[in-house]
Design a protein that fits this description.
Aminopeptidase, 13-stranded mixed β-sheet, alpha+beta, about 30% helix, single chain
Length: about 280
């Protein structure tokens, strides 16, 4: 007969640190700086958008990081790291009733123990640097500033009024195409950080009547070119099923870095989290 069976050693307990330094969070996120570009920019300037982050530690080592931008009403949230660390942070630390969550696909199961995605978009993170960038501007584009705020809000919709402010227009890089007095196409940076050497392009849009003329490509090219004068890399997000946009970005020199999922997620009520936990134990 064999000897007594011994249980497999358990992993050290996960501990949540809500007061970790920016340097610690940054060091972990730098392991995949292109995927964590938004979070790195927010950590570099937390006073701008009200960024807050939590770290999960195992035996003192960082296992996961979650960042929430509390200064924006839609609460952007980025989460990355080990599944047990993410599960602990969302269960014990994040109290937002609703967040706009971005995370690698492998992390979904751990997060959904506490938060439920209302919609999941499968996204692609693309990037470009000065060596690969191929500018392509076929329209007259001009830099958008604080003086253009009314035109910008009219273009993106009045719901954007709380997002677009004179300070944002001066801080970020936006370019647009005008037809007469009307802004008909635009693109800009969501965030950027000189310290991280990163900028993120987004809000690429063309009015319906002017689509198919390459205006969005001209705006994106102008934003990218200006951003690369100050930052080492520029990233952007695009839906995996948006083949036309991916093709446009590839012609500008953008490469695919990786995939992630994104969508609004709501905190499960206590009974739902308990029911899910009981089901797992069966």
């Amino acid at each position: 007969m064999g000897g007594p069976m011994t249980a497999a050693p358990s992993l050290p307990e996960i501990k949540i640190d809500a007061h970790a330094s920016a340097a610690e969070a940054r060091a972990f996120l730098e392991r995949d700086r292109l995927m964590a570009a938004y979070a790195l920019a927010d950590i570099d300037q937390p006073e701008v958008e009200g960024a807050r982050w939590w770290i999960a530690r195992r035996d003192g080592d960082i296992a996961a990081v979650v960042l929430v931008v509390e200064g924006l009403p839609f609460r952007p949230c980025f989460a990355t790291g080990a599944s047990d660390g993410l599960a602990a942070i969302f269960r014990e630390a994040i109290r937002e009733p609703r967040v706009l969550l971005a995370t690698p696909p492998r992390s979904r199961g751990a997060i959904e123990m506490t938060y439920r995605f209302e919609r999941v978009d499968h996204m692609r993170r693309m990037y470009v640097n000065i060596q690969r960038f191929r500018p392509h501007i076929n329209h007259e584009v001009r830099r958008l500033r604080g003086d253009d705020l009314d035109a910008v809000i009219d273009f993106y919709g009045h719901a954007s009024r709380t997002y677009f402010t004179p300070a944002r227009m001066e801080r970020e890089i936006y370019f647009g195409v005008f037809v007469g007095e009307a802004l008909v196409a635009a693109a800009g940076t969501h965030v950027r950080s000189t310290k991280s050497g990163l900028a993120a392009v987004g809000n690429v849009l063309t009015r319906l009547a002017y689509r198919g003329r390459g205006m969005a490509r001209s705006c994106t090219s102008a934003v990218t070119e200006t951003a690369l004068e100050q930052h080492r890399e520029v990233v952007l997000n695009v839906r995996e099923d948006n083949a036309p946009a991916i093709s446009v970005y590839e012609r500008l020199g953008y490469l695919t870095h990786g995939q992630f999922i994104e969508g609004p997620a709501v905190r499960r009520p206590g009974w739902e989290r308990l029911f899910g936990s009981l089901k797992e134990k069966k």
